[in-house]
Amino acid sequence: MTHYQHHHADVSPLSVAPPYSVSSLVAKMEGTSFQARNLARATSVWDEMLQNDTTIFFGLAGAMIPAGMRSLMVYLVQNRLIDCLVSTGANLFHDLHETLGHPHWVGQADCDNLALARDGVSRIYDVLIPDDELHATEDFIAEFSCNLPNDRAYTTHEFLYRLGKAVAGKTKNEGMITAAARAGVPIMCPALGDSVYGTAFAAARVKHNSPFLMDVAQDVVDMIKMVSFSMPNTGVVFIGGGTPKNFTQQAGLCTYLFDKDFKGHQFAIQITSDNPQWGGLSGCTFGEAQSWRKVAADAKSVTVYSDATIALPLMVTALAERANGQFAKRKKRASLRDLLVTPTPKPA
User: Fold this and answer.
1) Mean predicted confidence (pLDDT) in 99-109
2) pLDDT tens column, 158-177
3) Which residue out of 294, 329, 331, 346 is catalytically annotated?
4) How far apart are alpha carbons 257 and 89 in whole angstroms?
5) What pLDDT does 84 receive?
6) Is 294 among the catalytic positions?
7) What is the C-alpha to C-alpha distance for residues 257 and 225, in angstroms, rounded to an integer?
8) Which domains, from first to last, does the chain contain?
9) Angle formed at CA 293 by CA 292 and CA 296, multiple of 5 degrees
């Protein structure tokens, strides 16, 4: 076999030349290699999902909101580049915190941590958050949960929808929670208790005898329902892994509850800095996911090994530049929230 039989295309040296735009840069990266090519391919897969009217489930892990990604996430929600957000509780807390007018502070990773502790300031790598403002947001959550009707337990998506509606009337700032409430994009949080929301609920229970309860089982049912009635044209975008990734992917394995035969997501993108050999979900490949039948055998899938605070802004900006009115059409899509507030169809 000659080397010509292995040849498919030449690597294209990346030129710095007009047009000077993010979209142009990302397009040129597709002719390069390593993670530059993967980032460009992932952008193209996302673009294809948008053009094909795909229902997109987005998993958000890692400290993305404290790192400055709130407005980017709002853009995704407002323009319906995603149809359902599955997030860690921490990101949703920091989103609410900023929306209520409490910015995070620029810090340094190599600082005097004991001095920060004495001053009542907590650190997330090179981001700082003053404890008194954190507690103020925690108190806001506790009070809000105490004032909800206590005639039933709440799913996380209903709780967050009600919270988004309430906060939208109190501030001019826009966050993921408020934007999702306006756009009808459900937010699921399978581990809401593993965050300041959880400590706020605990404080409400201990200090105010709050009867507030979460309905975890119905959250799972509703996630399965969204996947079941969005088939077969579904896709996933994961930032990191953890609970959001597993919660999203397990739903596809349970569509039999609604008499649906799930063949796996048709599109799959993940941005991660983890590796697969440690066995954790953040580094788990889509090839491994195919063994679980979570990703279709013929799916278009790409993993970008990168810091998501670098990769995601480049990808979303490139998509925005390429849109050509495409987002206006996405905004007219039926909302998955409409599916959740209608009676669940019974299997035949």
Assistant:
1) 97
2) 999 999 999 998 999 999 99
3) 294
4) 27
5) 98
6) yes
7) 9
8) 34-340 (3.40.910.10)
9) 140
